[in-house]
Structures are given as structure tokens and as C-alpha cells.
């Protein structure tokens, strides 16, 4: 399709107000987003300590600087190749990715994507608030002598949660504008941070031994946990913003390049900064505490700024996405109600992370397990997108949100048995081959102890889905005029071998 001139500015581009859209289809006049907006959102929202801390994970695993950096680059590139094309799905449908996946999983089966997206965003939002709170309390303690105990953390966590939910409730327009400023401000802050810690930097391993006993298995763990997990966090979130980009105004190539470039820069800049500062500050067990302790006095204020504004930007994006996913799961909830509810749950997880859990083990296990079940969903959604040529029936995708029945994506009771079964098979293989400090899958004995959960889950899902849908066809928009796949199949003579939908 040849790109057309951008549409005239609508009300959605004017004064920032509370967003009225949930997971409904965005009307064409409101689809005023641009691919460069996706880039700034992905960069600006990720230059926060909740993303920076993933650069510390390889250091805590026992890797040296170059091994840590290479594992993150390899994982980020691999994950981006899979995830960036998902930007095209919501660009075509005008709704978020989990709802869009109903075209392949069924209008009820798309709850699989909603649940995965909700859990991914929930965990990452809690992590962002946890690290941001430490980056606020620590500098205030050094600068002003304020207490650094449980009371201070409770107050700061609560304040950050309130500011975050405020940003998430206002939604797309506020988050877009805020992340434009964050992309510039936080980039300058991190460049300044390189200068602040440069004289303390070393490339030698800080931890005496490899977490998994040898170099290559530990490097593979870092590739998945610190590198690949970054792009995988966007498998449902990416469509929250590309749904505002109109196919009438912008080409598919620009959308994919914007998503890929935004993810690569938005993840590698903060994560490599985290690796650099982890080695400079000697952060073996506690990243944020070591970062604050080793910071020159003049850099404490920039750290405090990142802890406040970077956290609100990153967590705001995540809680906004959570609100959409919960709205998709429970249609009777408004987006505002869903957003408020998930913000409370994420805040509770923050307090558990501070008072109860071992941070490193909890974070590592979380990202690996969610990657194992999220990858199969992404693979099926991408295969389905290719098979239908990017053509969807937006009205039929909204059947569940209207609490109705039928439509070309109804399949069997609202579920595609083939897609759901392929997802279950792929997720099972992924979970059986994952390697964390808390859980080791039995298939590791067949992979030489190397965590290949991402590769095995993706390959198994692709084979299973193509096998399960062999001989069937993807429902297309023109089918709506002729009835559902089931109705057409029932109308055929009994000896007909043709099938439609699975």
C-alpha cells in the first residue's frame, strides 16, 4: 500500500486528557500515531533502572564484562527478530495484540494472550517500582541523611505507585509525550553516568564462580534471562501503540523498523549501562545499593531523577498495558477500573519483593518461565498473521468484548483447538527445558545443560501449529458475509473433504 499524507490532527492530538479507548478498535480519525512515536515510546520508557538492572544479571551470574555484553546483545537481537513483526498485527487491526490474537486463537482463546501480557507487565512493573524506590531512598539518605529503613521505602513505593497509575490512567497521549522527554533526558543522564563511574570500571568478573558451573551454560542463561527477555516483554505490549498508527498513512516497513529500532536502542542502552556500572560499582549481590554507594556525590541527584521520572515512565507504560489486558479479560470492567486494580496488585508485589523474596532468583526465574510460555503465543500469532496476509475482520475480533457470540473467529465455542493445543505443547516443551536457580527442567539433560527453552519452544510450537492446521484455512474478512466457518462446513455435502478453520 502506498503511504498517504498523515491525517489532519484530531482531538486526540490536542490537550492531553484521560484516554477513553480500552481494547475497542481505534477509529481511523484517532489513529494519528507515527512510527517515530513508537520509537520514542520504546526508548523513553525503557531508560529506567527497572531495565538497567537486567544488565547486572550477567555480572551476578559470574561473567566478565565482554561475555556479559555479548550475551545481552545476542539475546536482544534474536528476540527483536521475533517480536518486531508483531507490531504489524495491531497496525492492521486497530486494537491491542491480545485481542488481535483472537483471529488465530478464537475470540475466547485470545484470553491466553491477555493472561500472558498481564503477567509479563505485572512482573516488570513490580521490578521497576522496586528498583526505582531504592534509587530514590539511597540518594536521599546520602544527600540529606534521611532514614533508609522500611518506613522510607514504604512511603517512596506508595508515592511512585500513585504517580505511575496517574500516568497510566491518562493513557496514550500523556505517555507518548512524556516518553519523548524521557528519551532525551535519561540518555543524557546515562551518558553522564558513564563519566561518573569511569575511573572505577574494570572488565574482570566480580563473582568468583559461574552460576551454572561453567562458562557456556552460564552465558546461555544470560542470553535468555538478560538479553532475550527484554524483547519478549513486548510481545503483547507492542500493539498498544502501533494500533494508533494508521495503515493508510504509514507503510509496514516503517512500522517494523520503528519497532525494531526502538526495542534495540531502548533495551541495549540501559542494559549495557547497567553492566558497565555493575562492574564499576562492584555490584555482586545488590545492584542499586552498590550503584548508590559508589556514585560520586554530584551524581546522586541524577540517580534520584532517574529513580523518580524513569520509574514513572517505565511503570506507567506497563500498568497501562496491564489495564488493557485486564479490561480484555473482564469486559465489564472499564479501562480505568482495570488500571486502578492492577496498580494495587503490582504495588503489593513490590512490597513482597522488598520484604520477602530473594530479588535475583525471583527475577531470573520469572523472566525465564514467562519467556517459555510467551514465545509459543508469539509464534502462533505471527504464523496466523502471515497466513491471513494481515487481513482481519475488526468487528469479529470484538465479539468477546461485547459479551456476544459468533463471528468468523468463533471457531469452536470461541476457541481454536489447534492454536490452543499448539501453544500448550510448545509451552510444555519450553518449561521442561528451562534452567533457573529455583527450577531446572528435565530436558536439560538432553541439551548438555544449556537452556534452549526459547529455541525449543518456538520450533515445537511452529511444527505443532502447522501440523494441527494442515488442510484448514485461516478465516478471512470476506467470510463474514457468508457466515462462520462452522456454518459453511455444515452446509457442505457430507462427503466433502474440504475444511475451513480449526
UniProtKB/TrEMBL annotation:
Regions of compositional bias (Low complexity) in chain numbering: 482-502
Keyword Transmembrane included in the entry's annotation: yes
GO CC annotations on file: plasma membrane
A GO MF term: transmembrane transporter activity
Keywords tagged on the record: Membrane, Transmembrane, Transmembrane helix, Transport
InterPro entries attached to this UniProt entry: Pur-cyt_permease, Pur-cyt_permease_Fcy2/21/22
Primary location: membrane
Transmembrane segments: 38-57, 63-91, 111-130, 150-174, 181-198, 218-239, 255-279, 299-324, 336-357, 363-388, 409-431, 443-468
Pfam short name (any one): Transp_cyt_pur
Subcellular location: Membrane
Superkingdom, taxonomy of origin: Bacteria
Membrane topology qualifier: Multi-pass membrane protein
Region Disordered: start-end pairs: 1-32, 475-502
Family (UniProt): Belongs to the purine-cytosine permease (2.A.39) family.
Protein name, as recorded: Purine-cytosine permease-like protein
Organism phylogeny: Bacteria, Bacillati, Actinomycetota, Actinomycetes, Actinopolysporales
